[in-house]
Amino acid sequence: QVQLAESGGGLVQAGGSLRLSCAASGRTFSAYGYGWFRQAPGKEREFVARITSSGGITVYADSVKGRFTISRDNAKNTVYLQMNNLKPEDTAVYFCAARHRDLGQYDVWGQGTQVTVSS
Fold it and tell me: How many CA atoms lie within 13 A of 28 on its CB side?
């Protein structure tokens, strides 16, 4: 099983960009599909984007489509979330998650990284 650690969060002005990284430990990185989720204060956690174990399929929430890009680098055991044209409503704690062979629920989670977008 992999373990996940997010980084790259911070404070940015509206319209700016950030790139989040999710570093995974273990030798089975390529066997997992990965997702990014976020949770804003007082709100439920929501799906942001996901990428399959092969990297061939990516899916985005409508709210981030065209602004965010998920990618993976199997050589570096890292998943990325490039976030462009950030909006104040993107402010949240962002979590990386993994599921084996793209099946079932995401059952491995990182601790999250805070993203704050000022207006």
Answer: 11
Q: Sort 100 into a burial class: Cβ within 10 Å, 0-12 / 13-18 / 19+.
A: middle
Query: DSSP E strands: which ranges in the chain?
Result: 3-7, 10-13, 18-25, 32-39, 46-51, 58-60, 68-73, 78-83, 92-100, 108-109, 113-118
How far is residue 71 from each of residues 14, 19, 33, 42, 117, measured CA to CA in Å? 23, 11, 11, 29, 22
Nearby residues of 1 by Cβ (< 8 Å), 6 or more positions away: 26, 28, 108
Distance in angstroms (rounded) separating the CA atoms of residues 46 and 100: 20
Q: What is the pLDDT of residues 39-91, one digit of tens each?
A: 999 999 999 999 999 989 999 999 999 999 999 999 999 999 999 999 999 99
Tell me the CB-side half-sphere exposure of residue 107, using CA atoms within 13 A.
Answer: 9
